[in-house]
Write a structure and sequence with these properties.
This is Thiol methyltransferase 1A. InterPro entries: Methyltransf_11 (IPR013216), SAM-dependent_MTases_sf (IPR029063), Thiol_S-MT (IPR052356). GO terms for molecular function: mRNA m(6)A methyltransferase activity; thiol S-methyltransferase activity. There is one protein chain. With 244 residues, this protein is an alpha/beta fold. It has one domain (1-243): Vaccinia Virus protein VP39 (Rossmann fold, 3-Layer(aba) Sandwich). Helix content is 40%, strand content 22%. Strand 4, helix 5 (153-163) and strand 5 form a beta-alpha-beta unit. It starts with a helix and ends with a strand.
């Protein structure tokens, strides 16, 4: 099986050689950072349509974690185009972090379409180093379709725990590796290197639930599902929340 995966990966490498060449020359990262937001604008519309019920279920109890003022302070890590904004409760104070500055103009559009929120600011930073956010300063951290592409899951989860106030919550929804005995997992392994290059560092075979289980949360509510998505490769999902 490993030999078959190697041969198929080699064939895909040959077909996508121009992308690897651009990457070798240091050009692909710049190109990807520019075009990826445009792809994500279209993808998130479809994703939100197909996952709307799951997102509503996931975020249904956000307000329970509001601080003494009654206003929810929320930090979204890897905010992208602001696809989650419409699921947040009215009056929620939102701060966004993303390492790609090219998302900002799309965020501005999403903010204009979601007047029920109080937008604080947009910070250009990686989730593994959110030094701009003070310790224990937010009620909730949200992270959707992000753990698949971060460089260090353990570090980002440590940062999440740092910025959350005691009793605050971390909400997540992530595509993950399929069960190892399935054909889906086989094709995830075959396509993972090219997928990682094409989709700005995204990984198909990450078992992100393991990092969440190892993190220092006092409570973890996590579900595995087969998401109702068109792309079978990313149907395996986890979602839920963890309490600091």
């Amino acid at each position: 099986m490993e030999l078959t995966i190697f041969i198929l990966r080699l064939a895909i490498y040959i077909l996508t050689f121009p992308l690897y060449l651009l990457n070798f020359l240091g050009l692909w990262s710049w190109i990807c950072k520019k075009w990826f937001p445009y792809f994500l604008v279209r993808f998130t519309v479809i994703y939100n349509e197909q996952m709307a019920s799951k997102k509503r279920e996931l975020f249904s109890n956000l307000q329970e974690f509001a601080g003494p003022s009654g206003k929810l302070s929320l930090l979204e890590v890897g905010c992208g185009t602001g696809a989650n904004f419409k699921f947040y409760p009215p009056g929620c104070r939102v701060t966004c972090i993303d390492p790609n500055p090219n998302f900002e103009k799309f965020l501005i559009k999403s903010i204009a379409e979601n007047r029920h929120l109080q937008f604080e600011h947009f910070v250009v930073a990686a989730g593994e180093n959110m030094h701009q956010v003070a310790d224990g300063s937010v009620d909730v951290v949200v992270c959707t379709l992000v753990l698949c592409s971060v460089k260090n899951q353990e570090r980002i989860l440590r940062e999440v725990c740092r910025v959350l106030r005691p009793g605050g919550a971390f909400y997540f929804m992530e595509h993950v590796a399929a069960e190892r005995s399935t054909w889906n997992y086989f094709w995830q392994q075959v396509l993972d290197p090219a997928w990682h290059l094409l989709f700005d560092g995204c990984n198909l075979t990450r078992e992100s639930w393991k990092a969440l289980e190892r993190a220092s949360f006092s409570k973890l509510k996590l579900q595995h599902i087969q998401a109702p998505l068109s792309w079978e490769l990313v149907r395996p999902h986890i979602y839920g929340y963890a309490v600091k």
